[in-house]
Amino acid sequence: MTTNIILAGVGGQGVLTVASILDLACLNNGLFFKQSEVHGMSQRGGVVYSHVRISDDVIYSDIIPLGHADVILATEPMELLRYLPFLKKDGWLLTDSETFENIANYPQKERILDTIKTFPNHMIIDASEIAQKIGNAKASNLVMLGVVSNHIPIKERALRAAIKSLFDKKGDRVLELNLKAFDAGREYAMELV
Amino acid sequence: MRHIVMGDEAVAQGALDAGISGVYAYPGTPSTEITEYIQKYKKEHHLDIHASWSTNEKTALEAALGMSYAGKRALVAMKHVGLNVAMDAFMNMAISGIHGGLVIAVADDPSMHSSQNEQDSRYLAHFAKIPIFEPSNQQEAYDGVRHAFNISEQLELPVLLRLVTRLAHSRSLVTFNVPDKQNEKSFIPNIDRFKMIPSKARPQYDKLVAKTQVLRSCAEESPFNQLSIGHDFSLGIVASGIAYNYLMENFEHNKCPYSVLKLSQYPLPYEQLKYLNDTCKQILVLEDGYPFIEEQLHDFFGNNNKVIGKLTRHLNRTGELNPDVVAKALGLKEIVNVEVPAFVQPRPPQLCEGCGHIDTFNALEEIQKIIGNKQIFGDIGCYALGALPPYNIISTLIDMGSSITMAKGAADAGVFPAIAIIGDSTFTHSGMTGLLDCVNDNAPVTIVISDNSAIAMTGGQDSSALAKLKNICLGLGVEPKHVRIMEPLPKNHEKNVALLKEEINYKGVSVIISQRACVRLPIDRKKIAKELSYV
Ligand SMILES: Cc1ncc(C[n+]2csc(CCOP(=O)(O)OP(=O)(O)O)c2C)c(N)n1
Ligand code: SF4
To answer: Looking at the domain assignment, is residue A135 inside a domain?
Structure first.
């Protein structure tokens, strides 16, 4: 069985960090994976996305076929919508509620959220707000990872270990905050379910 | 043990384990991580190998040839358009041949995710008559590089390793094998083949042409070209590189009913293709990039339509392949998808807040108000975003270095003032020679070097231009009083506009070095840049 996840966001929101955590966790869990990414240049504020495919068997394509994503996980709601053609029937849409409006013609927020709400399986999470409360506004990506952790075939323990090994070098405080953000995301998702 | 690596890194590790004594490269998406990986590895393992950046792809390739001449193995890495720059060396080293193994990793970018074009490097290797290796996945990238070094030495030819963005920038698990030692320094007994004067080049070229058959058998016997025989002979499939993955993605449990030639090593293997041709009714060619294989197999007059693919519109003619377009070509059921709502807007990258290029643009905007918007010739780098709103400063952007030479040609045609804007790294990559042309003709051009002390666009690599720009310009003969320095900061706006106005009115060559470090550089490098700056 292959689980397909699209991670989406804006440059600087930590989308690729989430991808790296998933990679590491797969390695530790003995799972096959492929994770491809397209990111803009060095400059900020452009589109960033990654296709993560996880399986107990060999995976061929580095990119997910249309209509095959089990989950689209976004750190920004408009970015979520950009990948709708990849969504599987009954697939999940998960997004941070906070918009990042760095273009002149950014659509109305309500319109974006209303569109997401028309899908049966969606969760709109105040991840940025939660992260802020914890004391690390930048960790909204980890909150989102916590939210998605129930939708993927990787054990929580493996995800935790991966977060540890990724943030270990950055000191105890950073690691603690990121783990806290991850836990907050998990809790939030449990409450919703 | 398995390791998490992206395609680029698999190439890098494969080259390290093949015992390279050096990597020579100029950055370019999506190839940059190859060299960065080797640089990091070198540091961590205290290796004695060459790994610093070259000034451009031509200097990189020639230096690698020098290392190979001395008997050692060298890897070269670049993006596809880089090979155009290195083409002179590339063509001729195929004829002279090499000594120590030499592999040129070139990353193509179908769909132009971050490039001006989607040229297919396989044509250039075909043109030079050298073997091509095109991996389909990360493990094959690792194993393939090692294989490529071996065949390079065995055939005395450089080998082109072709990557595409989707493999270069995709991670998976790879098993590394026992590394080889570096070669000892050695010369070949008779070095005549490296003296490419006509009398010696002619027999060498004959030798290269005669090698075609050997290369073909080498591809035929390659473990990386595999023919699997199906049970449905209505179709046979040739799938090269990552196109193989898109094919297999469409069949559960590996069960493709058709015969498939999985292709990773060129020139095209005759026997396997002949088998497909003899046994199958039609042949579908799946390849990412241009229809390189298809053109070789296609019948020119289209009498039998036996070979199908991009030329016959069974697949998209431009842009990359993916599992979905391959499914369509196979006649499989299409999935009806949810569409992207029309109100979703594109989100192009933007210059970072506080970027010096912005202040340079703001000053140029005042000039543009006077001269109109068609006389500022641009170049490639972060500042290329000046071609888009909100700036709309740059009128042209063609290839690295062309800002200066196009401004000169336009000036020759009577355009005045003609302004070029170019980055520091692009200037040393390909701008210096154009500047010499300007000086020699005393062309009335104004060249703004937007110097941020880095190759910022590809991630902030060291720029060969660091602390050298002024002396280069003076050395090339620009009048000292027309080599000007400005610091692009909002507080200097008026001053900078005045300076620009002065220089554009000068009827000769002037260079304005607009100097402020990229804000994304780490503090220690910003400090060094500051110390070395002219401001
Ligand atoms: C022949 C070729 N090689 C490499 C590239 C990729 N590339 C384009 S511009 C550039 C360097 C940009 O550096 P610089 O001119 O200093 O501008 P900056 O990005 O720092 O503003 C690179 C590596 C390319 N487009 N063409
Ligand atoms: S990376 Fe550096 S040069 Fe590029 S936009 Fe950002 S600040 Fe400017």
So the answer is: yes
Domain count, chain A: 1
CA distance B184 to B296: 40
pLDDT (tens digit, 9 = 90+) per residue, A84-120? 999 999 999 999 999 999 999 999 999 999 999 999 9
Instruction: Judge: B322–A65 Cβ closer than 8 Å, yes or no.
Output: yes
3-state secondary structure of B249: coil
Residue A162 lies in a domain: yes
- CB-based contact A134:A180 (threshold 8 Å): yes
Domain span including residue A152 = 2-96+107-192
Residue B309, both tokens: 């693919």
Select from B29, B351, B391, B463 the residue to mutate for testing ligand 2; criterion: most ligand atoms less than 8 Å from CB. B351
Determine which residue's CA is closest to atom 24 belonging to ligand 1.
B28
Per-residue CA distances from B98 to B38, B93, B102, B155, B269 (Å):
23, 7, 7, 9, 24
Q: Is residue A101 part of a domain?
A: no
User: Which residue is listed with tokens 């473990």?
Assistant: B223
ipTM of the complex: 0.95
Q: How far is the CA of A170 from the centre of ligand 2 (A)?
A: 25
Q: Which domains does chain B have, with CATH numbers?
A: 2-210 (3.40.50.970), 226-330 (3.40.50.920), 356-532 (3.40.50.970)
A103–B335 C-beta distance less than 8 A: no
Is residue A102 one of the residues assigned to a domain? no
Give the CA radius of gyration of chain B: 25
Residue A177's CATH number: 3.40.920.10
Q: Is A158 exposed, middle or buried (0-12, 13-18, 19+ CB in 10 A)?
A: buried
Residues B34-66: tens digit of each pLDDT: 999 999 999 999 999 999 999 999 999 999 999
**A87 in B contact zone (CB under 8 Å):** yes
Nearest-ligand number for the alpha carbon of B518: 2
A166 touches chain B (CB under 8 A): no
Whether B384 is in the pocket of ligand 2, judged by its Cβ within 6 Å, is no
Do B335 and A67 count as a contact with CB atoms less than 8 A apart?
yes
